[in-house]
C-alpha cells in the first residue's frame, strides 16, 4: 500500500476527529500517504479529496464533529453513484479506505471491498447500535451530555414538583435512554427494546408521588415515540404536572470525553496498521476493552442483545 483514504459517514460523533488524527499520523509514521475524503461517500463521488499531512490533524483531538464533514449520501447506494466513486478511487490511486461510521456506512464499505478496494470500518455513532462491539465512538460523550442535562432538569423538576419527559436520540436502539436513565436515576425508561403500557407508566409516577417523591424523570428514546404525544397520553389518564425536554442535536456535539478520545486514537491507529498491512473487509471493535477485528459481513449479522439486567435495575433503584 502506498496511499490510503479516510472518510466519516452517517451521523457525526464525538471522537471521530481523534480517530482521523490517529489514522493520519499512524499512516505517515509508516510512510504511507493519507487522503482525506470530504463529506463521506459524497466526497468519493464528487472527487472532493485532499492530501493530509501531520498538521492537517493538528488541534482537533478535543473537538466534536468531524473535520472531514459527513453526509447521508443516497447517490452512493445507486449503481451509477457507486461507479463514479470507484472511478475516483482509481483515478486518485487510493489503495484502501478507512470508513468511520455506523452500520449504513459499513454496508458501503462492504460493497467497496467486494469491488476490490480493501476497507476497514471504525464504529462511530452516538447510538451504540452496532451489536458486534461494546461501544461505538461518541456514545460515551453523548451519554455524559445527557446525564448533565438530566441533573439540571432534576433540579427544576424538584422545585416545581413536576414530572419531566426527556426525549433522547436512538432510532432503533435504546442504549442512550437506558444507560442515562440508570445513571441519572430515572423512574421510567421507554425504549424500542422494551415496550411499556400507559398504565404502568402512570402507576410508577403515582407510586413515587405517594411515597413523597418531588419529581419523576421519564427517559424516552426517539424510536419509541414523541415526548409531547406521550405527555398528552399521560395527562389524559391522570392529573399530573408534566413538562417535556427534547434534547436533540446537543447530544451529538461537544468536546469528546476522555473515553472517546482514547477509543478514537486506538481504533484509528489500529485501522491504519491493519490496512497498511493488507487487511481489508473488516470492522474494528472492542471486547473487554481490547481491540479486535471482524469480517464486515459477520459483524453486520450479529443482533444486538438487550441489556435486560440494566433495564430491571433502573426500575428497582428508582422505587
Ligand atoms: N446499503 C448500502 N449500500 C451502500 N451504501 C450505503 C448503504 N447504506 C448506507 N450507505 C451509505 O452510508 C451512508 C451512511 O449511512 P447511514 O445509515 O445514514 O448512517 P450510519 O453509517 O451512521 O448507519 C449513507 O448515506 C450511504 O451513503
Ligand atoms: O442528523 P440526522 O440525519 O437528522 O440524523 C439523526 C439521527 O442521527 C443519530 O444521531 C445517529 O445516527 P447514526 O447511526 O447515523 O450515527 C440518530 O440518533 C438520530 O436519529
UniProtKB/TrEMBL annotation:
The yes or no answer to whether the keyword Ligase is present is no
Class of this enzyme = transferase
UniProt binding sites for Mg(2+): 103
User: What are the alphabetically sorted keywords of the record?
Assistant: Allosteric enzyme, ATP-binding, Cytoplasm, Glycolysis, Kinase, Magnesium, Metal-binding, Nucleotide-binding, Transferase
Q: Where is the active site?
A: 127 (proton acceptor)
Name the needed cofactors.
Mg(2+)
Which Pfam families does the protein's record reference? PFK (PF00365)
Q: How is its activity regulated?
A: Allosterically activated by ADP and other diphosphonucleosides, and allosterically inhibited by phosphoenolpyruvate.
> Which reaction(s) does the protein catalyse, per the Swiss-Prot or TrEMBL entry?
beta-D-fructose 6-phosphate + ATP = beta-D-fructose 1,6-bisphosphate + ADP + H(+)
What name does this protein carry? ATP-dependent 6-phosphofructokinase
Amino acid at each position: 500500500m502506498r496511499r490510503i483514504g479516510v472518510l466519516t459517514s452517517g451521523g457525526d460523533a464525538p471522537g471521530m476527529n481523534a480517530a482521523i488524527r490517529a489514522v493520519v499520523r499512524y499512516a505517515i509514521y509508516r510512510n504511507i500517504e493519507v487522503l482525506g475524503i470530504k463529506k463521506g461517500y459524497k466526497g468519493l463521488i464528487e472527487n472532493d479529496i485532499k492530501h493530509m499531512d501531520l498538521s492537517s490533524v493538528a488541534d482537533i483531538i478535543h473537538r466534536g464533529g468531524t473535520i472531514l464533514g459527513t453526509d447521508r449520501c443516497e447517490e452512493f447506494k445507486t449503481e451509477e453513484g457507486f461507479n463514479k466513486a470507484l472511478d475516483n478511487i482509481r483515478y486518485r490511486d487510493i489503495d484502501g479506505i478507512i470508513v468511520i461510521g455506523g452500520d449504513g456506512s459499513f454496508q458501503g464499505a462492504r460493497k467497496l471491498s467486494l469491488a476490490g478496494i480493501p476497507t476497514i470500518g471504525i464504529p462511530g455513532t452516538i447510538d451504540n447500535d452496532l451489536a458486534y462491539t461494546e461501544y461505538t465512538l461518541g456514545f460515551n460523550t453523548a451519554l455524559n451530555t445527557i446525564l448533565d442535562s438530566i441533573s439540571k432538569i432534576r433540579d427544576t423538576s424538584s422545585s416545581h414538583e413536576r414530572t419531566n419527559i426527556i426525549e433522547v436520540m436512538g432510532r432503533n436502539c435504546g442504549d442512550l435512554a437506558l444507560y442515562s436513565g440508570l445513571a441519572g436515576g430515572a423512574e421510567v425508561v421507554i425504549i424500542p427494546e422494551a415496550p411499556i403500557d400507559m398504565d404502568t407508566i402512570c402507576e410508577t409516577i403515582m407510586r413515587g408521588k405517594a411515597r413523597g417523591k418531588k419529581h419523576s424523570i421519564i427517559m424516552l428514546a426517539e424510536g419509541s415515540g414523541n415526548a409531547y404525544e406521550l405527555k398528552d397520553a399521560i395527562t389524559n389518564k391522570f392529573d399530573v404536572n408534566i413538562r417535556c425536554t427534547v434534547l436533540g442535536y446537543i447530544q451529538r456535539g461537544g468536546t469528546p470525553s476522555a473515553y472517546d478520545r482514547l477509543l478514537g486514537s486506538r481504533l484509528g491507529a489500529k485501522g491504519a496498521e491493519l490496512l497498511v498491512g493488507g487487511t481489508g473487509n473488516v470492522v474494528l471493535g472492542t471486547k473487554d476493552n481490547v481491540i479486535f477485528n471482524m469480517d464486515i459481513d459477520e459483524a453486520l449479522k450479529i443482533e444486538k442483545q438487550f441489556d435486560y439486567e440494566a433495564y430491571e435495575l433502573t426500575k428497582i433503584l428508582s422505587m
